[in-house]
Task: structure prediction
Amino acid sequence: MYVVYARCCGLDVHKKLIPACVLLREESGPVRQEIRRFGTMTRDLLELADWLQSQQVTHVAMESTGVYWKPVWNVIEGQFEVVLVNAQHIKAVPGRKTDTKDCQWIAELLQHGLLRGSFVPLPLI
Result:
């Protein structure tokens, strides 16, 4: 499949945990994958943003799980191209479901340009 985004990340956002999968494709080589888990406190989200910067990630996709995506969005918006995706649109094939597999699936769909972003309203001032 054609790679649209060579340096991207998929986030599976939960109340207390954010598994993240970074997919990096160099010019001449296979795709390298790195998976990490982050908490949801501000310092953890800042650590996530720093890690994504250090990996030179350009695009990030995450599920719109309840309201848990909002703090993540607020921290990384402006640093990366961020796509908020409806969880119903990215359900993987039925079977064993883990957070790690979910973030890998989100990253893979993003890498190939197969995700459609949800509407995110501007903040009220």
